[in-house]
Design a protein that fits this description.
single chain, alpha/beta, ABC transporter transmembrane region fold, Rossmann fold, 3 domains, six-stranded mixed beta sheet, four-stranded antiparallel beta sheet, 19 helices, 10 strands
Length: 592
């Protein structure tokens, strides 16, 4: 029992800490917050005057027949309406502005951190989860700051003011009202929370169905290739039916809830009206006072419900804030050193010295052991070996996508861990086997490393990458939208755009992850020509899957079992390395 109490205390403490962080988001704009609070209080106070105006209108105009007094009351009423409308407009605008502003700052804060986190961090998380945090969680926070918080404060003012004025009108009737309305309002909020939980079950069922749709559409070629169209449709119908059944149960609960609320609400009003009516008949209250009492009772009941539901809203906002700040508080393992060293002048001398490495998720599984590879300035060095040998991991260590546990990787004689990440990665360009393009224009993708480049510079890079001709063939030329991940371009076109992007970056060191392995012969020839221009005068590390592409490399390193077992030219390795010879023969290559 003590443990449960301790857990609850920790949860409350965590929620309080999260809410305080929300307050810090608003702090830079506290002037607007104070201004909004003034309008909020004014609007709340003015709204408390409505029942009094109604009271005077009924008593003077209807009971005493004083037409002039009645007209004056109506004039005051419209004036109050106008003032209240102004106050509400400013309150709503300023509080909504605060909510939108705080959310924009929080989104930027979270995304800034995400961009700085190492690649290994993303391997443990789904991209949909991160996008969800920036969408759903932020929406919850925006609603609380921009709407629910101001509504709660307004209702607190109306609750206190309404009860005080009710006591002035008839304290006995007020006691009866307080014995009925607040418990009923709290119960309604409680059962409303239960309905939200049931609603979440329905949403989860619908999410499962949507997930199946997304998966089936994304892999529609595979679905149709295996003739699974009817099976996928049938499975989707089952998911939809499950969601329907859950929704039907929710509807029954909601109908029961709404009917119960309706009956109890009118019953409570009937009790108050019956007691109040007797007071009017006895001359203890006027008709106007009873009317005001009933209006104030409605205000108090509504305010009780809103204030009671605030706890749930704040809890959801605290949970959303915690999830977002879990990202913000993440300290990148790979970051600039505290006392960075400037990158020396040079042309790309690289040395992997006695490298030991394992992934953080598998500390007992050594991926690299004692790897030693030296790339002299301007050399082309290729890494070959069976799948899973560690070739891609070696290349990933140079731009510090991961850090080594033993040995060091140097660029221009300096340990890469001593360099600023911007300097280090600015000296390296990667052309991958599956190039990733962004959904903007061709020009945007080529100039990705420097959007200030002139059109002439972009076109010159495209010419060197053998891309200019096919780009010009498009109606919109360099303004052509390439679609998500470059889906509107062929494999060879995407690869040449990626090469142009690397040319623009003007790197000292080039990493090629078998940039032609997935291309047809014609596209491969065009890409090889572009690569030859790009590699000229640059130190190049090639991850080779098709050994025919690296026969002319200055040096070939055989990687197997996380270690370099042989190094040399193609002919030297054919004579000295059984592994290399087996790989060549397996790919049906004739020895040079």
């Amino acid at each position: 029992m003590a443990k449960r109490g301790s857990t609850e205390d920790e949860k409350k403490s965590s929620q309080l800490s999260a809410l305080l962080r929300l307050v810090r988001l608003v702090r830079p704009y506290r002037g607007r917050f104070y201004f909004a609070s003034v309008f909020l209080l004014l609007g709340s106070v003015v709204s408390l005057a409505y029942p009094q105006v109604a009271r005077y209108a009924i008593d003077l105009g209807m009971r005493e027949g004083d037409t002039d007094a009645f007209n004056n009351v109506l004039t005051y009423l419209f004036a109050i309406f106008a003032c209240h409308a102004v106050f509400v407009w400013f309150r709503h605008y300023l509080m909504s502005w605060l909510g939108i502003r705080a959310v924009a700052d929080l989104r930027s804060l979270v995304f800034d951190r995400i961009m700085l986190l190492p690649i290994a961090w993303f391997h443990d998380r789904r991209s949909g989860e991160l996008v969800g945090r920036l969408a759903a969680d932020v929406a919850v926070i925006e609603e609380v700051i921009g709407s629910q918080l101001s509504m709660a404060v307004r209702n607190v003012v109306q609750l206190i003011g309404g009860v005080a004025l009710l006591l002035v009108v008839d304290w006995k009737l007020t006691m009866v009202m307080l014995a009925i309305i607040p418990p009923f309002s709290v119960a309604a909020v409680f059962f409303g929370g239960k309905l939200r939980k049931r609603s979440k079950v329905v949403q989860d069922k619908l999410a499962e169905a949507s997930g199946r749709v997304q998966e089936a559409i994304a892999a529609i070629d595979t679905v149709q290739a295996f003739g699974r169209e009817r099976d996928e449709a049938s499975a989707y119908r089952l998911d939809v039916e499950a969601a329907f059944q859950s929704g039907l149960r929710l509807v029954k609960w909601r109908a029961s809830f709404m009917s119960s609320v309706s009956v109890l609400t009118y019953a409570a009003l009937a009790v108050i009206l019956a007691l109040g009516g007797r007071s009017v008949i006895a001359g203890e209250l006027t008709a106007g006072e009873l009317t005001a009492f009933l209006i104030y009772t409605g205000m108090v009941a509504s305010s009780f419900g809103t204030v009671a539901s605030l706890y749930g809203s704040l809890s959801r906002a605290a949970g959303a804030t915690e999830r977002l700040y879990d990202v913000v508080d993440e300290v990148p393992e790979i970051r600039d050193p505290e006392d960075p060293q400037d990158l020396p002048e040079g042309q790309g001398a690289v040395h992997f010295e006695s490298i030991d490495f394992h992934y953080a998720s598998r500390p007992d599984d050594a991926v690299l052991r004692g790897v030693d590879i030296k790339l002299e300035v301007g050399q082309v060095v290729a890494l070959v070996g069976p799948s899973g040998a560690g070739k891609t991991t070696i290349a990933s260590l140079l731009p510090r996508f991961y850090d080594v546990q033993g040995g060091q990787v140097t660029l221009e004689g300096v340990d890469v861990r001593r360099l600023r990440l911007g300097d280090l990665r600015g000296a390296i360009a990667v052309v991958a086997q599956e190039p990733v393009l962004f959904s903007g224009t061709i020009r945007d993708n080529i100039a990705y490393s420097d959007q200030s480049l002139s059109q002439a510079q972009v076109e010159r890079a495209a010419v060197d990458a053998n891309a200019h001709v096919f780009i010009q063939s498009f109606p919109e030329g360099y303004g052509t939208k390439v679609g998500e991940r470059g889906v509107k371009l062929s494999g060879g076109q995407k690869q040449r755009i990626a090469i142009a992007r690397a040319i623009v970056a003007d790197p000292r060191v080039l990493i090629l992850d078998e940039a032609t392995s997935n291309l047809d012969s014609e596209s491969e020839a065009a890409v090889q020509q572009a690569l030859a221009k790009l590699m000229k005068g640059r130190t190049t590390l090639v991850i080779a899957h098709r050994l025919s592409t690296v026969r002319d490399a200055d040096r070939i390193c055989v990687v197997e079992g996380g270690a370099t077992t042989a190094q040399g030219t193609h002919q030297e390795l054919m004579n000295s390395s059984a592994t290399y010879r087996r790989l060549v023969e397996h790919q049906l290559l004739e020895p040079a």
